[in-house]
Amino acid sequence: MARHRNPNRRTGGLRAGIFTVANAMPSEDAGERTIQREMGSSSRAARFYDRQMLPALNPTMVDLVRRQEMVFVATADARGNCDCSPRFGAPGFVTVVDPTTLAYPELRGNGVFASVGNILENPHIGLVFLDFFNTTVGLHVNGKAQSYTNDTLPSSLGPCLRSGHFGDGKILERWVVITVDEAYIHCSKHVPKLHKMDKSIDWGTDDPTAKSNDYFVG
Length: 218
What we know:
Helices cover 21% and strands 34% of the residues. It is of the alpha+beta class. The chain has two domains: 5-52, no CATH class; 59-194, Electron Transport, Fmn-binding Protein, Chain A (Pnp Oxidase, Chain A, Roll). The chain is globular and about 55 Å long.
């Protein structure tokens, strides 16, 4: 989830030189700082904050997002009860509207709407992209989210999102739009490299066999 950041911010430039960014640092009483002191990793963490944590996606991050067919989505309700769920689509199903705005489609599913319900109570969201098939590099994107139906999308987003793979609304139930707070690498050293196999996908189907409905309860 997005961290509580110190209002005192350090500034630095993206190495790509596209725009200047300000890297927010966690306050000294934040939980992660406490554990860093306990584990003796404060200097290593400081190097990570200074070099890796950005308040917007740089061009390399944008390229990675646009190649992915899956993202893990973490949310929590107002009481802190957590949910983590994957989302899938064709490459580019997560739309990079601009370096600080992402959007992904909520397709027809089980009707529970756990993630979207959490967002209604608590807008903080964490996304993890893992490039299993190529670089094995991952990308964390934390921010704040809102959800919309196709009909309630802001006018500035409507044309961009409705023109996409699921933009016709037949199986798309809502859009989740994320304003980015921070983005940073998940290093590749423990990520397995996978081989993609062919699978026919009937997007949004209600067929119980295609959904493997009884796998855990049959």
